[in-house]
Amino acid sequence: MWDLILHDPVAWGSILGIVVVMGAYYAYLIIHNAKNNI
């Protein structure tokens, strides 16, 4: 199963997309909360 995922660019794209979106979302929350606390 992992061999199929590792060699499938669509799976990599979706995984990277999820990671990027989650990272951007958390960064936004941290920045938003930091502005409110000041």
Automatic annotation (TrEMBL):
<keyword id="KW-0812">Transmembrane</keyword>
<protein>
    <recommendedName>
        <fullName>DUF3149 domain-containing protein</fullName>
    </recommendedName>
</protein>
<keyword id="KW-1133">Transmembrane helix</keyword>
<keyword id="KW-0472">Membrane</keyword>
<feature type="transmembrane region" description="Helical">
    <location>
        <begin position="12"/>
        <end position="31"/>
    </location>
</feature>
